[in-house]
Amino acid sequence: MDLLPVWVQAGLWGLLAGAALLLGAVVGFFLQVPRQVVAGIMAFGSGVLISALSFELMDEAFKRGGLAPTAFGFLAGACVFTSANWILSRHGARHRKRSGGLQPSEEETAGSGRAIAVGALLDGIPESIVIGLSMLEGGVVSLVAVVAVFLSNVPEGLSSAAGMRKSGRTAVYVFGVWGAIALVCGVASLVGYALFQDFSAGVIAATTAVAAGAILSMLADTMIPEAFEEAHAFAGLMTVAGFLVAFSLSRMGH
To answer: Which pTM was predicted?
Structure first.
């Protein structure tokens, strides 16, 4: 990879992390994975992301730009995601990560398929931008960020694809959605590097924090409810396990 321009590397790392969505979708669509297992994996992925946004994103944003831009970006990211998620929920995307029968079919809610696709895109872009931003110093990607996003994307794609199948959506639709989102993740990571490399430390810090705020809001609104609904008593344990894995990776990097 060292022979490739850094912006190309950024795109490929984002594509790799985004491909986990497609991998999870294949498993969720073709295999009858028990809902409790899906929920446990979802809880694990939630723990991974919570650790990554705490010790990688927010910590890095604070070091770059201080408290003010970090706090502003964090709240802004949460507000933007929550507003967009509220709008999409009103059009049928509320249960887009649910593996059971809660996702509406197109016959039940017209336009819900499009809303689910847009919602999945909304969930994936902040994570991918972070991967590109991690390469701004020295052109070296944060492997912790890549691993964290990859590990969280597998259950995300798995759970959502299983729900899409149960709501009657075709394989062409499901894999078209997740394949397209994987490609957009690569583009978002490339943009995260190419667009922000000449910006000030404060702007980069705020942007990183925006992504962190959006990710935490996504976890609270979508992934954690799915995990708790099915895993119940084990959801907390799996979340802690995911957090510990990502935290260990982060400390090994230091």
So the answer is: 0.80
